Amino acid sequence: MLFPLPLRVACSLLAWLALYTWFCHRYKHRNYEWSCRLVTLTHGILATCLSAYIGFIDGPWPLSHPGSPNTTLQVHVLCLSLGYFLFDLCWCVYFQAEGALMLAHHLVSILGITASLALGESAAEVNAVIFGSEITNPLLQARWFLKEMGCYHSFTGDVVDFFFVVLFTGVRIGVGAWLMYCELASPKPRWYIKLGGVIMYAVSWVFMVSICRFARRKSMKKYHAWRSRRTDELYLKTNGHLKKH
Predict the structure, then answer these.
(1) 114-139 pLDDT tens trace
(2) Structure confidence by residue, pLDDT tens digits, 133-147
(3) Are 141 and 39 in contact (CB under 8 A)?
(4) Considering only CA atoms, which of 124, 128, 122, 114 is closest in space to residue 67?
(5) CB-based contact 94:171 (threshold 8 Å)
(6) What is the DSSP letter of 86?
(7) Terminus of the chain with fewer CB atoms < 10 Å: N or C?
(8) Is the distance from CB of 54 to CB of 127 less than 8 angstroms?
(9) What is the pLDDT of residues 53-81, one digit of tens each?
């Protein structure tokens, strides 16, 4: 016999809180954000793998079956993610660690998952949104950890940034637009589920603008650094001796 949905969500919330507590104890020499980021990384990997299995293997396919009845596995994953988003929202509010945009993202995620669980439908597209949102999360956390360890300004940091931008653009913006079109074109999903999808996609575009600005700044910085090295090389070839610093 399955437990009621509120109890499953409460168990998920307690599980994420317990994991966070263990990380705080394990990494007591680090700050609280370090432990919270580890929880976020864990959820990102777990949610990406589970939602990918649901979408690509278990089904139904969200692009062709939006608004379909929820399956048991979909409900399990939604309860797991809902507990995480509740935990992370409370953590962000308590520590004032995030801005209004990220809080809005979490609130819309919580409302969307809750609505799908309450209705017993549309978990296919909600799981697809979770997949698109979480697939870039491990790279985002890796970027933060690299900065904390002083290893961000390296080849590894460049690789992480590159794949983060590519995945965000391709999945959250590209595939996200396709998913939103299928959601809006289908008569099955409720209007507020569609509205939630539009809001989530709009939030992704706000993030995308910030990412484009970051990518431009970093590209220009790399370009100027390359031009400087090129100028130094030409100077050495012209003068025939090493330039002293």
Answers:
(1) 999 999 999 999 999 999 999 999 99
(2) 999 999 999 999 999
(3) no
(4) 122
(5) no
(6) H
(7) N
(8) yes
(9) 999 998 899 988 899 999 999 999 999 99
Q: Indicate whether 2 pLDDT > 80.
A: no
CA dihedral sign of residues 89, 92, 95, 99: negative
- The pLDDT, as a whole number, for residue 46 is 96
Contact 79, 117 (CB under 8 A): yes
Could you give phi then psi for residue 69, rounded to 5 degrees? -60, 145
**Nearest Cα to Cα of residue 148 among 41, 20, 33, 24:** 33
Instruction: Annotate 154-214 with DSSP letters as a single string.
Output: SHHHHHHHHHHHHHIIIIIIIIHHHHHHHHHH-SSS-HHHHHHHHHHHHHHHHHHHHHHHH
CB-neighbour burial class of residue 80 (10 A; exposed 0-12, middle 13-18, buried 19+): buried
Copy the structure tokens of residue 208: 């995308």
CA–CA gap between residue 114 and residue 185 (Å, rounded): 23
Q: What is the largest CA-CA distance in the chain?
A: 82
**Amino acid code (one letter) for 176:** G
Q: What pLDDT shows up at residue 244? A: 47
Position 223 pLDDT exceeds 80: no
Distance CA 47, CA 82 (A): 11
What band does 156 get if pLDDT is binned at 50, 70 and 90? Answer: very high
Token digits for 125?
Answer: 């597209």
Contacts of 72 (CB under 8 A, 6+ apart): 2
